[in-house]
Amino acid sequence: MTGRLIYLIGPSGSGKDSLLDAAREALAARGCRIVRRVITRSAEATGEAAQAVSVERFEALQAEGAFALDWFANGLHYGIPVEIDQWLAEGHDVLINGSRGHLPQARARYPHMSVVLLTVDQAVLRERLQRRARESAEDIETRLARNAQFTQGLLADDPELIVLDNSGPLEQTVGRLMQHLERADACA
């Protein structure tokens, strides 16, 4: 039996890393593997359990075929290790922190994957982005507008999309994630 790929997406600031950290133990207890991404950003700045590498090292890994999926976004390279293919073949469900912009390529490679969209109320997202202090107020507003447009298009294009609102307590979002995965026979 082949495992299922669960592709978690959402805007920056939606709490994907926090959700993965909070759900890690429950997912592991169900046999679901959470992938550690490779990112061209310092280990201290990743904000997630990621493997930080230089651009040169990333490009070498890419040339060696080390990634099942990889993309470039927001000035950084991201890679999902090719080991996920073995885990899926062994029957493990695999959850990755993916990219909304790379969704078509991921679907082409894994047509039966489940997509989980983490959403957040725009006011809550604005506050989280402001608190991070990585972008100007103008950049944040541009990001919020782009997110709203992208989310509307995604919801219209994908009726099987699992949508989780992470505007409230994280424990509630973890609970809803686990309920959706149980209904979808993923991580069971």
From TrEMBL:
EC number(s) given by UniProt: 2.7.4.23
Keywords assigned by UniProt, alphabetized: ATP-binding, Nucleotide-binding, Transferase
Keyword Transferase: yes
Highest taxon in the source lineage: Bacteria
Catalysed conversion reaction: alpha-D-ribose 1,5-bisphosphate + ATP = 5-phospho-alpha-D-ribose 1-diphosphate + ADP
Binding positions (ATP): G10, P11, S12, G13, S14, G15, K16, D17
One Pfam family per UniProt: AAA_18
Pathway, per record: Metabolic intermediate biosynthesis; 5-phospho-alpha-D-ribose 1-diphosphate biosynthesis; 5-phospho-alpha-D-ribose 1-diphosphate from D-ribose 5-phosphate (route II): step 3/3
The keyword Nucleotide-binding appears for this protein: yes
Boundaries of every Guanylate kinase-like domain copy: 3-182
Family indicated by similarity: Belongs to the ribose 1,5-bisphosphokinase family.
Function in brief: Catalyzes the phosphorylation of ribose 1,5-bisphosphate to 5-phospho-D-ribosyl alpha-1-diphosphate (PRPP).
The name this protein goes by in its record: Ribose 1,5-bisphosphate phosphokinase PhnN
Species assigned in the record: Pseudomonas lutea
